[in-house]
Amino acid sequence: MSYAKKLPRGIRNNNYLNIRASKTPWIGQNGSDKEGFCIFLSRIMGYRAAFKTLDTYCRKYGIVVLKDIIKRWAPPSENKTEAYIFAVCNFTGYEPETRITTKERIVNLVRAMAKVEIGVKWADFIFTEELLKAYEMAHIKEERSE
Questions:
Q1: 50 in any annotated domain
Q2: Whole-angstrom Cα distance, residue 67 to residue 98?
Q3: Is 13 inside any structural domain?
């Protein structure tokens, strides 16, 4: 087995948040794997897709509370959602009821979700500069008021 195959799917696919492929491909998406997860040309493009998705949760559905974001992202039908929420809270220091409404909180949330998705032992592969660049590329213009 090659070294690349030993890496978590999210790392292999430049899709640290394990976004599933849909009918409409993302900018920077380069297909999908056999399990239906997007493959991105770069980590930044994968993060960009995550930020765009979270922005849609806020703007279209009014979902801004951490636990509600995770419940939508990782529903109990596919995940151990409560454990996911606990882990994200542990990584961020936020409470489940924390409103994720500022750039800092959104970036910290994505960093924490990436840790959950790819595994903590791979956290050294999560770079703040890439998260910030992807946030800007997602064109999230206004921060939501507390």
A1: yes
A2: 8
A3: yes
